[in-house]
Amino acid sequence: MDAWERTGDPRWLDRARETVDNIVERNGGSLFNDYFDDMLWFALALLRLHEADGDPRPLADAVAIWDHVVEHGWNDEQGPSLAWRKQQLAYKNTPANGPLVILSLRLERAVDDPGSRAFRSYAERALGWLERTLVGPDGFVEDGVNREGDGRVDVQWRFTYNQGLYIGALVEQGRTTGDPSALARAVRTARTAITELSDGTVFRDEGDGGDEGLFKGVFYRYLGTLLAVLPPGDDRSALEAFVRAGTDALVAHGLHDGRLRPGNDWSRPTSGPIPYSTLLSAIMAVEQRCRIEAGYPARERVAAAEG
Question: In angstroms, rounded to a whole number, what is the distance separating the alpha carbons of residues 252 and 268?
Answer without folding.
Answer: 9
